[in-house]
Each structure stands twice: as structure tokens, then as C-alpha cells.
Amino acid sequence: MTVIIILIVLGILLFVIEFLLVPGVTIAGIGGLVLTVFGVYKAFADFGSGVGVWVLIGTLILSAFVIAMSLRARTWNRLMLKTNIDGTVDKNLSEGQVKKGDRGTSLTRLAPMGKILVNDLVREAKSTEGYIDEHSEIEIVSIEGTRISVKPVKNK
Fold first, then answer.
1. 122 or 91: whose pLDDT is higher?
2. Distance (Å, rounded) from C-alpha 149 to C-alpha 145?
3. Are residues 65 and 15 part of one domain?
4. What count of Cα atoms within 13 Å lies in the side-chain half-sphere of residue 89?
5. Mean pLDDT in residue range 121-147
6. Which of 1-5, 74-78, 94-98 tops mean pLDDT?
7. CB 90 within 8 A of CB 146
8. Does one domain contain both 24 and 68?
């Protein structure tokens, strides 16, 4: 009987892991199903129909109870991340901050997106002419909302 109880408890534990920690159908869910069904089957095979039915009913009740307790808010409250995100996205560039024709420097490699420094402002920009290496001189080609397009400055 100890083996049957261990199989059923491990199966339910794997189900809880499947439902709460590992999304989708994975080995935990399949393993939980196999262990639970095998535990109930073994109860029927070893002890007959009477005990098998009681083990099946007990397994269903225990499974429902464990899943209900696992889904309660207080159970997972200790594990939840309680940090607020205060970051915002730039709405639009203010008039005069950055204009077409302004020159600056690429802070990161633009492949084709990257960071640039223009007029003491760090912004994200897109290269119109392929890749631009970091610390290269760039010129702003266009501005559409927060989208800045740049090209490398060709030294003559």
C-alpha cells in the first residue's frame, strides 16, 4: 500500500508542477498522469475493486484539494514579485531637442537599431544605410514621432 500512496502523491505533485510552474504539456504533466493512473491501477490489481474504488475517490478528492490550495492567493503571495514598474516611454521629441540635419555619435552599433548621442540626449535610432559601428559620427535624416533615422557621416 505504501508504493501506491507514493505513486499517487508523486503524480499529484507533478500535476501541480505542471499547472503552476511549467506551461504547456510537458514531461511533468505526462509523468503525473502516468504515476497517478498507475497508482490507482495498482490499487485495483493488488487489493480488488472495493479498495480500488476508495483509492480512486481519495485520489480525486486529494487532487482537487491540492490544486485548490495551490491556486489560493496567499499560497503564492510569498513567491510573487511585488515591484512596481515606473518606467515610461517617450511620447514625442520636444520641438527643438533633435532636428533633421543634427549630428551626433553612435553609442552602440546600429544594426540597424542602436543608441545615439545627439545634443546631449541619448536616443534610440535606426540606420538608413546598413550597419554603423559604435563611436561613429552620424547625421539625423528624419524624425517621425520618436523614431529617429540616421546615416553615417562620410569623411571627405
1. 122
2. 11
3. yes
4. 4
5. 89
6. 1-5
7. yes
8. yes
